[in-house]
Amino acid sequence: MPAAAQHRRTRNTRLARALAAACTGAAVLALPLIGATAASAATTAAPAVGTTPAGYPDNLDGWIRESLAIMAEKKIPGTYNGIYRNIIRESSGNPAAINLWDSNAAKGIPSKGLLQVIDPTFTTYHVAGTSFDIYDPVANITAACNYAAHRYGSIDNVFSAY
C-alpha cells in the first residue's frame, strides 16, 4: 500500500488511547478493593468439615494425620510429607481413584484409593484396627505405608509408582 494511502495516527489519538488504557487499568485495580469492602461486611460461616470416627478432620490432612497416629502405634515408619507427596502423585487426593488402564488393571486387579493399592497388597499389608475397605482413606494410607515399609524401608523412600 502506498504511503499516502496509509492511515496516520495523530498525537491526539495516541494520547486518548493512553488515557483510556490508564483509566481502565485504574478501574480494574479499584474494583477488587471496592468488592472486598462490601464482602467484608457480610458474615457467612464456612462450611464445616466433618470428622472421622477418631475425631480427625474428614479431609486429606485429617486422613494423613490419623494414619500417622496408627502408624506410630504399630511402629510403621513414615512422615506427613512422604505420604502427602505420594498421594498427590498417585491419586491427586481422590480416595475414590481407580486405575483401569495399567498392567494391574489388565490383569483384573486395578489400583485403588489414595495410594493406588491393589487388592492383594491391601489384604496382605492391612493394618489391624483400620477398615477392610480399600477405598477407606485411612485404611488405604496405612496399608500402603506398611507395604512401603516392608519393601522400601518407608513411604518416604518412594518417589515413583511402587
How many β strands by DSSP? 2
The largest pleated sheet is described as:
2 strands, antiparallel
Class computed from helices, strands and strand pairing: mainly alpha
> Which strands sit side by side, in order, in the main sheet?
1-2
- The helix/strand series, from N terminus to C terminus, equals HHHEHEHH
Low-confidence stretches: 23-45
Instruction: Provide the domain count.
Output: 2
DSSP helical segment count: 6
Q: What is the approximate shape?
A: globular
- Beta-strand share of residues: under 5%
Signal peptide: 1-41
Protein name: Transglycosylase SLT domain-containing protein
Pfam families: SLT (PF01464)
Keywords: Signal
Task: Describe, in plain words, how this protein is organized in 3D.
Keywords: Signal. Pfam families: SLT. Residues 69-159 form the Transglycosylase SLT domain. InterPro entries: Lysozyme-like_dom_sf (IPR023346), Transglycosylase_SLT_dom_1 (IPR008258). It comes from Streptomyces achromogenes. By secondary structure, the chain is mostly helical. It has 2 domains: 3-41; 60-157, no CATH class. 52% of the residues lie in helices and 2% in strands. The chain has 6 helices and 2 strands, in the order αααβαβαα. The protein has helices spanning 11-41, 60-74, 80-91, 103-106, 119-125, 137-152; strands spanning 98-99, 111-112. It has a two-stranded antiparallel sheet. α2 packs across α6 (137-152) and α5 (119-125) crosses α6. The chain starts with 10 loop residues before the first helix and ends in a 10-residue tail after the last helix. The model is unreliable at 23-45 (pLDDT under 50).
